[in-house]
Amino acid sequence: MKNIYPDFYDFVPIPTSDGFLVFHCDKCHTSFLPQITNFTKKVMLCPYCGYRESINYFYEQAYIKKVKEYQLQAIKNLLALVNKDISDSNIQEALCLGYNKLQELASKKELELTTKVNIYVEDIVNLDDFIEIKTSCCNKSLRVMINKQKLNYCLYCDE
User: Fold this and answer.
1) Helical spans, DSSP H, in 4-127
2) Nearest of 130, 133, 109, 111 to residue 121 by alpha carbon
3) pTM assigned to the model
């Protein structure tokens, strides 16, 4: 029971219509959007600071805040099912009761559980703050922050 979160939802990142997905580097605090069509790399460089890490690191840094918002809302929804005063000392009990009530309603078909949550790029960043450029080394598309157009590295060819 204690591991309901974060595996309760299946978060699905949805790229833009032209295939860009948001990534974020926590080392230099910048976001960038590579075109992920046919993107098969497991490790990439931040195009700004050159920090090399797994692609999952950059992805998780971009989406973690939005995922936490969904998780908090899910907890609030569970607690609302219990419908009683909750203090810090009995929050675990209340979550268990809420989860049991949720399962009961779902089994009776009184409630449909939706565990797939689409997160769109537009939920994470304002696309108006980015401009599409072509990398100078391999001529591939990348959306970068308007106020940070100077790139030092290519995340596509590691140069």
Assistant:
1) 55-82, 91-107, 121-124
2) 130
3) 0.72
The residue whose two tokens read 């401009």 is: 131
In angstroms, rounded to a whole number, what is the distance separating the alpha carbons of residues 159 and 150? Answer: 14
Report whether 144 contacts 151 (CB < 8 A). Answer: yes
CB 104 within 8 A of CB 113: no
State the burial class of residue 122 (Cβ atoms within 10 Å of its Cβ: 0-12, 13-18, 19+).
exposed
pLDDT at 2 over 50: no
* Rounded Cα–Cα distance for residues 100 and 119 (Å): 27
Sequence-separated (6 or more) residues with CB below 8 Å from residue 144: 32, 33, 47, 130, 131, 133, 151
